[in-house]
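Mods, move this if it's the wrong board.
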Amino acid sequence: MTAPSPAPTTTPSETFSFPTRGTLLGDAEAAAVAEIIGSPDRLTQGVWRDRFEQQFREYAGARHAISVTSGTVALETAIRLLDLRPGDQVVVTPQTFQATIQPLLDSPAEVVFCDVEPGTLNLDPAALDAVVTDRTAAVILVHYGGLPARMTEITAIARRHGAVVIEDCAHALGARHRGRRPGALADIGCFSFHGTKALTTLGEGGMITLDRDDWAERLDRVRSNDADYRSLPYAGPDPEPALLPWMRYSDDIYRRTCTRWHRAGTNATLSEAAAAVGVVQLGRLPELTARRRAVATRLDAATASFPLVRTHRPHPGDEHAHHLYTCFVDAPVIRERLVRTLHTHGVEVQLRYFPLHLTPEWRARGHHRGECPAAERSWFDHQVNLPCPPSLTDRQADRLASVLHDCLTLAHRI
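Not the wrong board. Structure tokens:
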């Protein structure tokens, strides 16, 4: 009879949960907000937004960076640029948060779910090559957990078919793919600055990065409560009115004719206070990313002696941002025991994310189990996600790693 393994060393009062904040906020962020409150400058569309967008362009390596009110709005607005029509296809990943592809529920395009790599949960280039066609208008993917997708192969496949690639970079701040940062690896990059992300703009915010000038102009119109349309100078029969200087905005409206209509705009302007916090947070990003990696290194070490456990590792030449800590247990029975044991000993496990093609709204659109077997096997049988925030101290990270090791030992011996 096998002797029982020692109980994990956590105490009942010490728990490890997914944080409500994925970053650290302090005096520098508070000082930036206080500066705005004490200034007579405008609270919207001001110098802080301009500064944040400029610094983000430089960070990502993109020609344009356009801030909006959330990552969801960033994705919605980016998808608008595609001008999807009946008969178009959009290839998407099933392994992401629902906001990545939710705007497509209102689209006339056919949505095709493409399977993921079992070891990364990122879009599988081989699977993409099998489903993409000349009707494919776009490919939408996520850098799962902060691990960069194989963008070189993915964009090459998309280019052969004339498809636009949108990268959801909500997890990817701090990552690199072959020396380049997400946000400049595809046609369009979308970022989230939600409070749970590696960088926050006071709880909500987002950014769109891209290189095309015409798309950037359209995005700026949409987020600024203007209509998304193309126009030419007005050449109608009415005489031009005499306009006073304060009527300049009216002058721009009156003297142009709409030649192509896309969609209505909205107000998606990031406030000055949010943008100011974003500037400070962007400057702190290297230290915050390093902290996440330090925690992940401790957790990797805790799993190293268990052959059935695989860690979430980047491809050669890439750098992981560790927005999530992910590992895989190759024996489903042991995975189930591990998750239950961790829960019993105060460690929260969240399996992110339920395969989207199996959610009610997408099943209603005709999708079903078996479309993406690798994503399904991972979520139902193998995947484990643990908290990995920069707020963990060294002592807490060591204790979490110890608990993980002890729970793995117990799960193997039961």
